[in-house]
Amino acid sequence: MTIAPDIRCPCLSGEVYAACCGRYHSGARAAPTAEALMRSRYSAFALGLEQYLRGSWHPSTRPDSVDLDDDTRWMRLDIEDVRRGGPADSDGVVRFTAIYRDADGGHRLTETSRFVRERGVWFYVDGIHA
Ligand SMILES: [Zn+2]
């Protein structure tokens, strides 16, 4: 799947895709913070990038496959709280709400996600749904 580099990034940062999550999806660089990884994973869900979702999942919790529903439309991401997760930290917590629509209508998902950084690379570990 080819994604135009000049589309607005699905994470709604206001940047174009290539200057935002696209850099991480392509492997051109690693997400520098837990929040950046969180945003790139949201964008990967929106764009259906299963390989990126698995690769950014910590090996200890990584699922064999990620269930991506073609009917799901990811509408909006709000980052609500960030603890640690900076370039010098080894772990971080990001609380967010994602709004999406599927065949059943609109949904709101609030999750507190845990991230760890190993050898300079951030990984998603797990999340607790509010
Ligand atoms: Zn983005």
From TrEMBL:
Source organism (scientific name): Okibacterium fritillariae
Domain of life: Bacteria
Boundaries of every YchJ-like middle NTF2-like domain copy: 33-127
SUPFAM superfamilies the UniProt entry points to: NTF2-like
InterPro entries named among the record's database cross-references: NTF2-like_dom_sf, SEC_C_motif, YchJ-like, YchJ-like_M
Coiled-coil segments: none
Record-stated family: Belongs to the UPF0225 family.
Protein name: UPF0225 protein SAMN06309945_1582
